[in-house]
Write a structure and sequence with these properties.
292 residues; alpha+beta; 6-stranded mixed sheet; 10 helices
Length: 292
């Protein structure tokens, strides 16, 4: 039996989807090409439910992230109708994480509207939402920097960007953004992301109380041997400092060390993104990290 590979779930802010106006691929479920060059069908988002409407036919929701809103729809009959029942469990002001496929609609005036058809929806804490915001912010800023480099030279290729330190995905996205959104206001988007206040009172309380260090992936918590008071960020940062032989500490070595300490790979990725965003480390080349 042949299995179709599951599409990646991309972490993006709502504005990146809202500002999109390019589609690519099959007519029924095309890829969305966003202004940052992300080529996607599925996304992973978090946010606060700000609106909900439910009737005999469908459930609609609006979920606010840090700079805008996503729109969700699920029908109560047909394929994946159980997600409508799942959505009905939640109310306005609940904080949730959602993975789903993106649906698009284009009006006669050429205006695009996007909604998410959920495949998974779970409640999360404000701390977990914070981690999503930090990682998404880091990924977004890396893409914007790569796009800036691509815009400097029309002859620049993905290989050009890889040579100066960007990942293959970042490089390809940057070239795709240049080709499809040359007139897009990237400065405005950069300012919007940079203005996100990750030092809000809620975040400060979580950090000072150590709550952030105690958050583990719910699917891995039972199997994790890391103590609940274990400061995983300090562990990762110290490991990078102690094991950098010059060209940077390898990602795989960091993951192996953390796994031995009971820290799952997903948590390692969050920590690396957080440390990079806070200026503690930087990616000197693909999958190699140095402490500052």
């Amino acid at each position: 039996m042949e299995y179709t590979k599951r599409e990646n779930s991309y972490w993006i802010f709502s504005r990146e989807l809202k500002d999109s106006n390019k589609l690519e691929g099959e007519e029924k479920r095309p890829y969305v090409i966003t202004p940052l060059g992300t080529r996607l069908k599925r996304i992973l988002i978090t946010g606060v439910i700000t609106y909900k409407s439910s009737d005999d036919r469908m459930v609609k929701m609006t979920i606010a992230d840090y700079i805008g809103s996503f729109y969700l729809t699920a029908f109560k009959t047909g394929f994946n109708s159980e997600m409508a029942d799942e959505m009905d469990r939640y109310n306005v002001n609940d904080t949730v994480i959602v993975m789903g496929k993106v649906s698009s609609f284009k009006t006669d005036d050429g205006i695009f509207y996007f909604s998410i058809n959920p495949e998974l929806m779970k409640p999360i804490s404000e701390t977990e939402r914070y981690f999503w915001g930090i990682r998404t912010s880091y990924v977004t800023k890396r893409k914007l920097l790569a796009i800036t480099e691509a815009m400097k030279d029309d002859a620049a290729t993905a290989e050009t960007l890889v040579k100066i330190g960007y990942s293959h995905e970042e490089a390809e996205d940057a070239i795709r953004a240049r080709e499809n959104y040359a007139d897009y206001d990237f400065t405005s988007y950069t300012n919007a992301v940079s203005a996100i206040n990750f030092d809000s009172p809620v975040m400060a309380e979580n950090i000072s109380s150590g709550a952030i260090d105690n958050v583990e992936n719910s699917e891995n918590t039972e199997n994790s041997s890391a103590p609940q008071t274990f400061n995983v960020e300090t562990f990762v940062l110290d490991y990078i400092k102690s094991n950098d032989s010059g060209p940077g500490c390898k990602y795989d070595d960091i993951v192996i060390s953390c796994t031995n300490a009971g820290i799952p790979r997903e948590r390692v990725d969050e920590i690396l993104n957080s440390l990079g965003s806070s200026g503690e480390i930087y990616e000197v080349s693909l999958k190699r990290y140095k402490a500052l």
